[in-house]
């Protein structure tokens, strides 16, 4: 197979809190992202003190989206993954009536995409939730938040039923194990038991909105979204192999519930062994049977696992702590580059679930520097993405059903982990620096033209 199928969906992915800015415009309320100016791993700020955050303006996509969508169209995008900021629709999260200004904004955004023939894929919750629900309700630890999320989802399903046919529930839902505030709205001091109780409520909410989507937009598709945290055994010692199985199950558990509709036995044992008391009602069990139509996931790197604590020198990468693989090179941020791992992951997910797959995040963060002519010669990004897409093609030859690929992020944006812009992913350079300086001007990188050609040729231009 030299070419991808003609109906394969090519595009890019962004998140509202990392590109929009305008954090106090249009009636928007305060979100968890707004109070984390230095990203997921930064301290929570008192926004009354006006703590500076790059995300407050981000790349000003809120005002500049027509310009950016025109550039995406020039590359040939067939789909753009975006998220709706929950706090633009329900500023506090518990209101009965949505904010019309927020709804109208996304109407304009989706209309602009349609004008260019680009489909919208919408994530309902991408690393943010109303801060009011955290402070007043305790985040997802409170079952009442399920009702608030379902109300929000139904409002946007009804509003955009004719404009959006691709939906995702929670971004990287398994991330809650590593960043509880960002994932489930739990603040410092929460226990593992607290986190899993909140996760259960989120899984129930996910199933409820899957059901709502099927009822309100029968011709739409709705999927889950996993952080693809693939790990290998560091050695062939049986203990390393079993430890790796357990480590992979920590994130596959979320897919098991959302794709199979029930809690797996290994997770119930884990709860028993750890004394974690998750209340799973009979009604919950019935609701969880509402499974997703497809599986979407992010993939940036792989890692290793060992049962030998002396060898377990971990690195920080994509939120996960992983043991370095001695056979792989790493990016500037220590994220180990493993294109074959993407093929492995695609096959693993297909074999496990037999549901269509969508790669909704993949890309290389790097410190791009303009040359004397002001151009970005990002051959390293081209190499990374070429090698990964070749492996996607190989997985499809293996028989894996892959619906599409949306790179992260097609335009430079603010990183989720540290709230910086110096880790750049885009095909489009944005003139903004970590100190907030810059004109916000957009410039096409070398990779812009490379990706344009990949899309134009349906992948035939890739170099094996």
Automatic annotation (TrEMBL):
GO terms for cellular component: cytosol. One of its GO terms (molecular function) is beta-glucosidase activity. The keyword Lipoprotein does not apply. PROSITE patterns: GLYCOSYL_HYDROL_F1_1, GLYCOSYL_HYDROL_F1_2. The active site is at residue 361. Keywords: Glycosidase, Hydrolase. One of its GO terms (biological process) is carbohydrate catabolic process. Gene3D superfamilies: Glycosidases. Pfam families: Glyco_hydro_1 (PF00232). Belongs to the glycosyl hydrolase 1 family. This is 6-phospho-beta-glucosidase. It comes from Rosenbergiella nectarea.
């Amino acid at each position: 197979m030299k070419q991808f199928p003609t109906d394969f969906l090519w595009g890019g992915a962004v998140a509202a809190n990392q590109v929009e800015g305008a954090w106090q415009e249009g009636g928007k309320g305060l979100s968890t992202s707004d109070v984390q100016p230095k990203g997921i791993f930064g301290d929570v700020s008192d926004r009354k003190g006006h703590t500076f955050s790059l995300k407050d303006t981000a790349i000003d996509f809120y005002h500049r989206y027509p310009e950016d969508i025109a550039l995406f169209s020039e590359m040939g995008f067939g789909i753009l993954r975006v998220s709706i900021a929950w706090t633009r629709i329900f500023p506090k999260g518990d209101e009965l009536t949505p904010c019309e200004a927020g709804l109208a904004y996304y109407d304009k955004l989706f209309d602009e995409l349609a004008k260019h023939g680009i489909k919208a894929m919408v994530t309902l919750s991408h690393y943010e939730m109303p801060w009011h629900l955290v402070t007043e309700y305790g985040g997802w630890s409170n079952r009442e938040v399920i009702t608030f999320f379902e109300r929000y989802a139904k409002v946007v399903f009804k509003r955009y039923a004719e404009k959006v046919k691709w939906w995702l529930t929670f971004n990287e839902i398994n991330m809650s194990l590593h960043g509880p505030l960002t994932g489930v709205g739990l603040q410092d001091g929460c226990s593992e038991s607290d986190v899993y109780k909140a996760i259960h409520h989120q899984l129930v909410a996910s199933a409820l909105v899957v059901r709502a989507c099927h009822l309100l937009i029968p011709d739409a598709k709705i999927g889950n979204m996993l952080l693809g945290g693939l790990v290998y055994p560091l050695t062939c010692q049986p203990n390393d192999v079993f430890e790796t199985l357990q480590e992979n199950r920590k994130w596959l558990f979320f897919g098991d519930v959302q794709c199979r509709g029930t809690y797996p036995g290994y997770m119930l044992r884990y709860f028993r062994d750890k004394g974690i008391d998750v209340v799973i009602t009979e009604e919950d069990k019935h609701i969880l049977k509402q499974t997703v139509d497809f599986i979407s996931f992010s993939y940036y790197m792989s890692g290793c696992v060992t049962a030998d604590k002396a060898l377990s020198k971990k690195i920080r990468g994509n939120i996960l702590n992983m043991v370095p693989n001695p056979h792989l090179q790493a990016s500037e941020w220590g994220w180990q580059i493993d294109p074959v791992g993407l093929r492995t992951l695609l096959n693993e997910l297909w074999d496990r679930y037999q549901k269509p797959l969508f790669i909704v995040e993949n890309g290389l963060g790097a410190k791009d520097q303009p040359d004397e002519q002001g151009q970005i010669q990002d051959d390293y990004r081209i190499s990374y993405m070429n090698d990964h897409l070749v492996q996607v093609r190989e997985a499809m030859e293996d028989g894996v059903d892959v619906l599409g690929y949306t790179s992260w992020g097609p335009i430079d944006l603010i990183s989720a982990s540290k709230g910086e812009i110096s880790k750049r992913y885009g095909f489009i350079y944005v003139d903004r620096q970590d100190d907030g300086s810059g004109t916000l001007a957009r410039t096409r990188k070398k990779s812009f033209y490379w990706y344009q050609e990949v899309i134009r040729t349906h992948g035939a231009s890739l170099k094996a």
